[in-house]
Design brief:
By secondary structure, the chain is an alpha+beta fold. The chain has one domain: TATA-Binding Protein (2-Layer Sandwich), CATH 3.30.310. It is built from three helices and seven strands, in the order βααββββαββ. The chain has a seven-stranded antiparallel beta sheet with strand order 2-3-4-5-1-6-7. The longest helix has 13 residues. It starts with a strand and ends with a strand.
């Protein structure tokens, strides 16, 4: 079993809060796409945080960290997956929070079912 934390655009967060649909994240049309600049910024930050490219898929790029699991970057989200180990969850959670420092991205904790408010 793994623990998942997601990064979306702030626009996706606002739309989810306005619509309040239980299946919001299951509909691709609800998710605002990253700009090419945002995708590049996220890729570069993953590399700085020691996430290494691990393959391209039809729907995104996979990155792996030697200690903290995987990150999967799609057109509209960055998904961090790690084990249920407390230290791994803490580190991945902190990394995702730090990625929101530009004000362009919002962190969503799937297990907690909510957005991080800063």
């Amino acid at each position: 079993m793994s623990y998942t934390i997601c990064l979306f655009t702030v626009g996706t967060k606002q739309k989810e809060q306005q619509l309040g649909q239980p299946d919001f994240f299951e509909k691709d049309e609800n998710l605002e796409k990253f700009t090419p600049e945002q995708r590049l910024e996220l890729e570069n930050r993953l590399l700085k945080y020691q996430y290494q490219p691990a393959g391209n898929h039809s729907d995104g790029k996979l990155f792996e960290h030697p200690d903290f699991g995987e990150a999967f970057l799609t057109d509209s989200a960055l998904y961090f997956s790690t084990s249920n180990d407390f230290d791994c969850i803490f580190e991945v959670g902190m990394t995702a929070s730090e990625f929101t420092d530009t004000g362009e991205f919002a962190k969503y904790d799937v297990q907690e079912g909510g957005w991080e408010e800063v």
